[in-house]
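dumping this here so i dont lose it
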């Protein structure tokens, strides 16, 4: 009795093998604003999401030593003022003189000791800040981050085996983990010239368009095509049968009989495989039911179309 199978006619097609790597969205123009001195945040004008220009004052830091000297001058004035209020007679005139002297010293301190302005080094958007007015900060402490959201990139890395297969300017597909069904077209803009000795990977940057949904810090996956072949004999991976000795065969149908064919594969992806030898266009390939076949088995073929059904479709591995 004939074994029912489904078949498809072999046609020449394109096959693409790609790698998937994970990364995070960032800005090519991003700067961390730091405190120039140890001190207190005297004023803060920046808020998250605010647009700023290069040179705009974002905050002011009162140096700690100057803050202490100013506080000391103020304390001396307050003591002199209380002494004047309690004094009488000749002592009151001396207390007034001391109060005026300490008041002049306080005014001089206010003019001399002023907060140091902190300016934005680039134009962009304040994407984060870790301070408020009155916060104590140390020298070189990170205060806030400013990024140009018009120059977004995805930072990621590829293995040393794959880095030789990619090039600057290569078009890729970026999928945000928060929006997996809305891929974004990207382009490899930077490939570092060296491989990290610990991870054995090369860092790359992928330029992506600026859209409102994209935010620095988002996680993303990047699909990078590493091999492409046009006008190739391509079959579904499911059509391949692995023999006990590790070789690969497929079944074709000739005159209603199954015939096993040893094949050699080239580029492979999750769903498809390129056949370098053993098949030719026009062959009737068994795509379903091959596990029940042997060489010479009679079959009842249900021809579904061509293999692959969607020529030119890219695949991931």
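and the seq i came up w/
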């Amino acid at each position: 009795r004939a074994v029912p199978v489904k078949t498809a006619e072999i046609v020449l097609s394109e096959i693409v093998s790609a790698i998937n790597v994970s990364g995070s969205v960032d800005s090519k123009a991003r700067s961390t604003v730091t405190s120039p001195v140890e001190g207190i945040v005297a004023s803060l004008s920046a808020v998250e999401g605010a647009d700023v220009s290069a040179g705009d004052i974002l905050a002011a830091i009162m140096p700690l030593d100057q803050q202490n000297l100013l506080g000391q001058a103020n304390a001396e004035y307050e003591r002199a003022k209380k002494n004047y209020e309690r004094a009488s007679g000749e002592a009151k005139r001396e207390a007034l003189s001391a109060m005026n002297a300490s008041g002049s010293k306080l005014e001089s301190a206010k003019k001399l000791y002023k907060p140091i302005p902190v300016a934005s080094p680039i134009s962009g958007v304040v994407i984060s800040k870790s301070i408020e007015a009155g916060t104590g900060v140390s020298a070189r402490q990170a205060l806030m981050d400013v990024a140009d959201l018009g120059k977004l990139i995805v930072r990621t890395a590829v293995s040393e085996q794959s880095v030789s297969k990619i090039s600057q300017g290569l078009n890729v597909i970026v999928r945000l983990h928060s929006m997996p069904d809305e891929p974004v077209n990207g382009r490899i803009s930077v490939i570092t010239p060296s491989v990290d000795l610990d991870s054995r990977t090369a860092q790359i940057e992928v330029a992506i368009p600026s859209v409102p949904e994209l935010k620095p810090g988002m996680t993303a996956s990047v699909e990078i095509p590493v091999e492409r072949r046009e006008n190739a004999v391509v079959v579904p991976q499911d059509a391949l049968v692995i023999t006990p000795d590790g070789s690969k065969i497929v079944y074709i149908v000739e005159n209603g009989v199954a015939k096993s064919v040893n094949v050699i594969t080239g580029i492979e992806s999750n769903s498809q495989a390129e056949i370098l030898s053993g098949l030719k266009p026009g062959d009737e390939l068994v795509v379903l039911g091959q596990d029940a076949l042997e060489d010479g088995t009679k079959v009842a073929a249900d021809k579904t179309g061509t293999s692959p059904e969607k020529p030119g479709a890219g695949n991931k591995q």
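The radius of gyration is 36 Å.
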